[in-house]
Amino acid sequence: MTTSFRDFYHLLGVSEKAGRDEIRAAYRGLAKQYHPDANPGDEAAAERFKAISEAYGVLSNGAKRKQYDRMRRLGAFDPGSRARDASGAGGRPAGRGGFSFEDLGGLGDIFNSIFDRGRRQGGAGPRKGRDVEVPVDLSFRKAARGGRTTVTVPITEECATCSGSGARPGSGVGTCGECAGSGVVSFGQGGFAVNRPCPACMGRGTIPEVSCFSCRGRGTVRQQRKLDVSVPAGTESGSRQRIAGRGERGIAGGEPGDLILVFRVKPHHFFRREGDNVCVSVQINVAQAVLGSKIRVKTVDGRHAVLRIPPGTQTGTKFRIRGQGVLRNGRRGDQIVEVEVTVPGKLPEEARKRMQEFARASGLRY
């Protein structure tokens, strides 16, 4: 088999000096375009999605990216080159001569782990399932006070119809001709070899005689799992929470991956956050500002607090309601109330006369 091996940077369309944010943005755009859910039945798109996911998994991890860059500088990867073994042939099953990363000792072990080397069946050991990252939208109040929320998690599960074999019930499976049943193929460049799951059989080592109607021969199906999760008080946009064992199922009996929640706090029309304090703006009229008053102000927990406005209060004056802010690390912030004195655009005649009397009594000119 002759297969094109693409450089991870070229695959994501970023430069070697790209930062994490740029890599993340490039991955999300490509993942959305090639996701299997958006391209049902398109095997090419599915393979592309796997490739960009693998590239992102390496380049978004500091340690893995460092090792990858080191091997890349050694000439192991030539963007756009054709995979070949030492004799110039195409991809070959692992362990049939030529140079392999095992020859690099400890570094080879690290690099093999980067590419998730191994096969799903045929004697391969168990492998941990993939981590799943899910964005979670929160209301301002829930993020500030904490609570629970329901999260829908897209998960790839073993097909229940065929038990993961990819074959229609009642039909059999045959040995994959691409990998000779090993479940892996070797891609090489310049004498180096990288073992990866066989794309023809998805790493199973077998090909179904008749494809399963539920999973179309893939052995896996996409499911939506709903989970009730706890939201810590004081959660901010961009904060992450890892839930062990709730990601993708493990392979060959391996432990499942983790679920990573990425919180996004929706803006509120009244409240805004500054550190652990909650800030609001309220309007009062001229009479309240001049004579003083008591007003009721909404708090982030849905209640109302009574705030005393002293006589002579000016626009922009700030008041503090203690203990009505965000709870974090056992400490609760305050609520900061900024008042804005509003002036009516037009007064009724009686009110206008009284305002004129007030102005004359105060020695004001108008």
Note the topology:
Layout lengths: L7 H5 L7 H15 L8 H17 L2 H12 L32 H9 L17 E7 L1 H6 L1 E12 L14 E3 L8 E6 L2 E6 L8 E3 L11 E12 L8 E4 L15 E7 L6 E3 L2 E9 H6 L1 E6 L5 E6 L8 E4 L5 E2 L2 E2 L2 E8 L6 H13 L5
Parallel strand pairs: 1-9, 11-17
Antiparallel strand pairs: 2-7, 3-6, 4-5, 8-9, 10-11, 12-13, 14-17, 15-16
Kindly describe this structure.
Strands 10-11-17-14 form a four-stranded mixed sheet. The longest helix has 17 residues. The N terminus is likely disordered. Helix content is 23%, strand content 27%. The protein is α+β, with helices and mostly antiparallel strands.
Structure keywords:
single chain; 366 residues; alpha+beta; 4-stranded mixed sheet; 3-stranded mixed sheet; 8 helices; 17 strands; elongated; disordered N terminus
Overall geometry comes to elongated
Number of helices: 8
How many strands? 17
SS-based class = alpha+beta
Mean pLDDT equals 78
What portion of residues belong to β-strands? 25-35%
Helix content: 10-25%
Distance between the termini: 92 Å
What is the CA-atom radius of gyration, in angstroms?
31 Å
How do the strands line up in the largest sheet? 10-11-17-14
Could you name the ranges where pLDDT drops below 50 across 5 or more consecutive residues?
A: 1-5, 78-124
- The succession of helices and strands, N to C, reads HHHHHEHEEEEEEEEEEHEEEEEEH
The major beta sheet can be summarized as: 4 strands, mixed
